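Lab notebook, page 48
Experiment: co-folding of the full assembly
Goal: obtain a model of how the components sit together before planning crosslinking
Operator: M.T.
Materials (sequences as entered):
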Amino acid sequence: MAERFPEVPGFRFAGLAAGIKKTGLPDLGLAVAERPIPCAAVFTTNMVQAAPVKVARERLSSGYAQAALVNSGNANACTGAPGMAATLSSSAAIAAALGIDVALVLPSSTGVIGQLLPAEKIVAAAPALVDKLAVHGAGDFAQAIMTTDKSQKTAYRKLALAGGEVVLLGVAKGAGMIHPRMATTLAFVFTDAKVAPALLRGALGQATERSFNVATVDGETSTNDMVLVMASGVSGAHVNEGSREAAQFEQALAEVLRELAEQIVADGEGANHVAEVQVSGTDSDAAARSIAQRVATSLLVKTAMHGKDANWGRILSAAGMAGVAFDPDVVSIAIDEVTIVRGGLGLGASAEAEAQKIMAGPRYSIRVSVGQGEGKASYLTCDIGHSYIDVNAGYRS
Amino acid sequence: MAERFPEVPGFRFAGLAAGIKKTGLPDLGLAVAERPIPCAAVFTTNMVQAAPVKVARERLSSGYAQAALVNSGNANACTGAPGMAATLSSSAAIAAALGIDVALVLPSSTGVIGQLLPAEKIVAAAPALVDKLAVHGAGDFAQAIMTTDKSQKTAYRKLALAGGEVVLLGVAKGAGMIHPRMATTLAFVFTDAKVAPALLRGALGQATERSFNVATVDGETSTNDMVLVMASGVSGAHVNEGSREAAQFEQALAEVLRELAEQIVADGEGANHVAEVQVSGTDSDAAARSIAQRVATSLLVKTAMHGKDANWGRILSAAGMAGVAFDPDVVSIAIDEVTIVRGGLGLGASAEAEAQKIMAGPRYSIRVSVGQGEGKASYLTCDIGHSYIDVNAGYRS
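Observation: model returned without errors.
Model output:
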């Protein structure tokens, strides 16, 4: 664990099984700073938002918090006033056990929708959870937030700033092929950099646009999605607005989130291939992104990926649905370095056979160039196969 | 055949096997009027458009045509200048055999993308095809345009107008779960009503909005989609702009197209259930349509349909992604008459069990009411199962 979950000065972590999951697996995680520290988050844009999302968003309006509480096994979404009460009482129990103001505890939940969170289990577990808090507890925290994830997801960066070295530790949950009741992406980044709330918020917004917002599995967003960054400042290394350090910090944050997003896309139920759809040559980056997103979310492209089929007709046709004007007769398409379409025309069976060898691998790029301008964008996607149907067509139990 | 493909005064039809399909099944169809008649069409909005789409659109700018030529087995899309030449020469051969101006022949193609249409086969078959033209040949025409369709698709309306009785015969192809190389929807409506081109165009636009544009299988649009209506006028019954007859005609046209669209959605590779997503209570019809479309295209909803699971959390969450503001706490959801969510809260296991009985059937409605205004809309969709993956992940051959 030590390598994957190194210490982040200023934080302690814990995780345990509180009995929310029927399986008895760990389902309650806590991350705590030494004092109220700058925090920023982005939340789901779904109109339907779980109680913990509403509470965390409200509490974060100050720009400061001290603890992040997560449960898996129950999303506490679509649970009305009793659900709100459950979120409030469970975070209050943690605040009491920590001896801090409840407004400093940010709750989050992931799991089945429409069932009330069993707050009493969290209330009962709160003292033990706080007792377990440890500098090297991030692995336990990561374990507790897993749902259908096949593996823990983590990313780490060290960064030499003018004021000293800082670290960023990212921990996430979310499976590529999204599970019926557990569609949520939760990601946490802990850093000891000294960053003011406004800068943290801006950096997170930029970094999210370059990571989670350009990764897709099945085009769904959940009622509970959240990406949270907490900055303890314990390193003493300042990151000031407009400074070189700010650019470095934002870049490192984007890299951590990008790595987490890629781990989520790759950890698919039945997904064997991750592709980065790279679009270039549009009039603007926004146009490139529209095309990349349309290709990345096309079911026909995703099933072709599953079949390791260099089916460029589907790629080109998906690009043509993006609502972006381009001339199909100048489009090129390549799988990594192997061009299969030039000037809008297929280059034939031997080029496709070369491309299909690459598509047998776990990761490759699908490159679409529309030959008009300097715009470019990329989007992560994965294949879709039988396991997605099996997992998602099963009855809830 | 006589009942499904009745005579439409003023038209003759034919279909035969020209050798374009490797299977030797019929693959060339022709519908011909006695003279140039008013015609209107809507075409795919994909930026990538096959040669026959470009040619038919250009020829239709006059508002008149006399013959519709269709081949299956080859889409002639992404085939460049040789593809354009193939479309021009094959329609020229038909025009020559008919003894009419080539500008009166509207070509269309459906099948594999990226392979050149073997025009020589159409040229060779043209005389025999024209020889076969018959008043009762619509069944042969319908047979010739099929690709992965499990059955011929047809719809029929008789309409008593002030000037006499008119008929509308619709013929379509397209499978619910869209086949890799044959993603195209082609629909043709033949009528003996007397309608000017501009009115025909307007009526088709309206009718398409109420049929094909609110039906989804996998969110893909092809390079070759076309809906064409041809009005022979032989009945002598005039349909004039703004008249009661115009409203009647438009309604009948919409019904024919709606019936064809529903047959296409139901004819899915592995699809067992068709649902009409009915959204009401929004501020506007457009808002209702956005929600209905998002629910109808949600992979998680479509896999829940496949599993016969009244998983309202997915329905509500999909609705929440539509970009339409609503209060989740006043939403109701029902499967046909069985309400499973009221005031944003699930009504429990027994209501869901009732709903799941309905979801075992071939057709039902998913009703979402957001309780705000008078807006409403509906959208047809189908479930998605293993066969979709099998068909679409297979290698092209």
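Interpretation: Chain A has a mean pLDDT of 91.
Next step: discuss with group before ordering constructs.
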